[in-house]
Amino acid sequence: MDLPTYLNALTALFVIIDPIGAALIFHSLIPADDMKHRVRMALKSTLISTLLLLIFGHYGEGLLHHLGISIHALRISGGLLLFYTAFNMITKDIEYAQQSERKDISVFPMSIPLLAGPGSLTLAILLFSRSADNAVNLGVLAAILTISFITLALMLLSRYVKTVIGRTGDEILRRFLGVILAALAIQFVYEGVKSITGQ
């Protein structure tokens, strides 16, 4: 496994998925006293989003090729999409209204669009497409599994995460991560333009 690739992918995925913010949103969507339902929803959400990231990351580039879309064009469009996501992270507020109704939130909104949304799916393709080296791809795979485990753990402990972090802490963290994601997005755009122009 390529360690620099693993660390780079882990950082990028942590920034865009934001496991802490996802845990706080998860806590607000599930009744606090229904632990069995919380565990089931956390496991289901994590499993669905992980499979989506792995499948889309592995086969998304081939699908784009059949559609006549180059990976360089995806880097540019993906970078713009990530920048839009980063802009929203920095400028928009998220409401945390505690729900008392028991419902299935595993597909929407937890898996799509929070954990495996357009930004993270695009990022998965970009990470897997950077090299055909098995060690590099293994690093990306390990990063996806690691971030999924971290997200699952934080969702299961979301009650305590909310107590420790609080809304103010999450606001600060989300905006800080948004700045980092914006820089990552510009890097993707730069790499795409550089590849297309051949410079």
Automatic annotation (TrEMBL):
The keyword Isomerase does not apply. InterPro entries: Multi_antbiot-R_MarC. Its main location: membrane. It is a multi-pass membrane protein. It is found in: Cell membrane. Keywords: Cell membrane, Membrane, Transmembrane, Transmembrane helix. One of its GO terms (cellular component) is plasma membrane. The keyword Transmembrane applies. Pfam families: MarC. It comes from the Bacteria. The chain crosses the membrane at residues 6-30, 42-60, 66-87, 107-128, 140-160, 172-190. PANTHER family: UPF0056 MEMBRANE PROTEIN YHCE. Belongs to the UPF0056 (MarC) family. This is UPF0056 membrane protein. It comes from Proteobacteria bacterium 228.
